[in-house]
């Protein structure tokens, strides 16, 4: 009996996903300067030509990679178990996790690169605006926030800004103990402002 090989389309999708995951890992580990298409291709176990077939430019590769992982994180939030959705502290912790993992580290490197790279800046600006809107929408839904009430939109945005700040603090040190206390406090603030979930 012969070996069954997956259809070309499936292999192409798997190769693309491996490249995206490798790009995020490289960006988080080596920053923009150390993350070339060749380095990513090697880490993904594919040829440079295969990488360029999927992503013609370096900018295409890295913006697609951050977008891919942002969507993965958003999907994880959307599928939080119902019992966790009722626990505001669990929701706050899940949202904070968006800003304390490898995605945030990779995105931060991309932001820094975009500040100096004219070709990259409009792509990253548009991507971050989209990710920001999606994060806000998901936060409103998970927190059970009624944005028609004055101050609620700003409270949710302030919470997301605080979560981003916790992500920055985590880049240099293990800030998990303090972060845990801040999450509990923000859950209490949100309960007081938004009402119990």
Low-confidence runs (pLDDT<50, min 5 residues)?
none
Mean pLDDT across every amino acid position: 84
- Total helical elements: 10
How big is the Rg?
A: 19 Å
Tell me the number of strands. Answer: 0
End-to-end distance: 58 Å
Q: What letter string, H or E per element, gives the SSE order?
A: HHHHHHHHHH
Shape: elongated
As a percent range, the share of strand residues is under 5%
The largest β sheet comes out as: none
Broad structural category: mainly alpha
Report helical residue fraction: over 70%
Could you explain how this protein is built, in words?
The chain has 197 residues and is mainly α. It is built from ten helices and no strands.
SSE order and pairing:
Blueprint: H1 8-30, H2 37-44, H3 48-54, H4 58-78, H5 82-85, H6 88-97, H7 102-116, H8 121-143, H9 152-172, H10 176-194
Helix pairs in contact: 1-2, 1-4, 1-7, 2-3, 4-7, 4-8, 6-8, 6-10, 7-8, 8-9, 9-10
Short description:
The protein is an all-alpha fold and 197 residues long. It is built from 10 helices and no strands. The longest helix has 23 residues, at 8-30.
């Amino acid at each position: 009996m012969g070996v069954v090989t997956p259809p070309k389309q499936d292999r192409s999708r798997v190769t693309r996903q491996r490249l995206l995951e490798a790009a995020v890992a490289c960006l988080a580990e080596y920053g923009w300067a150390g993350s070339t298409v060749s380095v990513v291709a090697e880490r993904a176990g594919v040829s440079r030509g295969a990488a360029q077939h999927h992503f013609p430019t370096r900018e295409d590769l890295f913006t697609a990679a951050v977008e891919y992982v942002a969507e993965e994180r958003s999907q994880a939030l959307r599928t939080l178990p119902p019992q966790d959705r009722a626990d505001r502290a669990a929701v706050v912790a899940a949202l904070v996790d968006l800003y304390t993992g490898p995605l945030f580290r990779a995105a931060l490197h991309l932001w820094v690169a975009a500040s100096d790279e004219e070709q990259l800046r409009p792509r990253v600006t548009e991507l971050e605006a989209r990710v920001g809107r999606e994060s806000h929408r998901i936060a409103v839904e998970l927190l059970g926030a009624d944005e028609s009430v004055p101050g609620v939109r700003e409270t949710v945005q302030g919470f997301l800004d605080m979560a981003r700040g916790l992500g920055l603090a985590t880049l240099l040190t293990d800030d998990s103990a303090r972060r845990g206390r801040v999450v509990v406090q923000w859950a209490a603030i949100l309960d007081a402002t938004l009402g119990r979930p």
